[in-house]
Amino acid sequence: MDLGLRGRKAIVCAASKGLGRGCAEALAAEGVDLVINARTEDTLVRTAEEIAARCGVSVTPVACDITTEAGRARVLEACPEPDILVNNAGGPPPGDFRDWDRDDWIAALDANMLTPILLIKSVVDGMIERRFGRVVNITSAAVKAPIPILGLSNGARAGLTGFVAGLARETVRHNVTINGLLPGPFDTDRLRNTMAARAEKEGRPVEEVLREAGASNPSGRVGTPAEFGHACAFLCSAHSGFMTGQNLLVDGGAFPGTL
């Protein structure tokens, strides 16, 4: 299927690796020119070069902290009129809510709620004027099924989801959609680090623990960043204009509900 995106411009956040890179690669394969950001410059530049060489599109790396005003300004200077915005940021650490103070909550809200909202605010009116816009917020399956030790993430991402639910109904008449993409277990550094900590605690090989995690999923495996990226690309496509304010689970069937 031709997604109708050739020549479009996209900002993809936290795209040097993992799910963000999967989304950037899928969009680039459809002919989208990219501005990608992450904090680690050498990894980001290498990713940009590899995607550009493989897909023949423009890929501009902007190494910055997207949760800061200065970081957002640099990204928007590199791409002031994006057709697509993919919001993404690493999740806050797990723990017991009794141990978190106000600074912990503010950091979680800055990264996983306020930064996406501020980026949307910066680009949405231009999208409306141009009669095309796609915003995809990468959140978490915990939005549907909260995980007790991920309270910081649960709260911040649920706040973003609630905000988007209202705004998405206002922008869709202008062919600007805003949706959430909710990952379950994917083979990323974050999952591997979590599995490594568990493996060390249990005195087992990391790969064994990772295989066990995949086997516990209804699909019998964990997902790949590439297939997550393809889901993102569809939400960004010319064919998804009647889909907005939705939260699409990509979790191998782990969520047991019907809604």
Describe what you observe in this structure.
- There is one protein chain.
- By secondary structure, this protein is of the alpha/beta class.
- 47% of the residues lie in helices and 14% in strands.
- The protein has eight helices and seven strands.
- A seven-stranded parallel β-sheet has the order 3-2-1-4-5-6-7, with helices on both faces.
- Helix 1 (18-29) links the parallel strand 1 (9-12) and strand 2.
- Helix 1 (18-29) packs parallel to helix 2 and helix 1 (18-29) crosses helix 8 (225-235).
- The two termini are 28 Å apart.
- 41% of the residues are buried.
- The model has no long low-confidence stretch (mean pLDDT 95).
Keywords, separated by commas or semicolons:
seven-stranded parallel β-sheet; 259 residues; globular
In short, what is this structure?
By secondary structure, this protein is α/β, with parallel strands linked by helices. 47% of the residues lie in helices and 14% in strands. The chain has helices at 18-29, 41-55, 69-78, 102-130, 151-171, 189-202, 206-215, 225-235, and strands spanning 9-12, 33-38, 59-63, 84-87, 133-138, 176-183, 247-250.
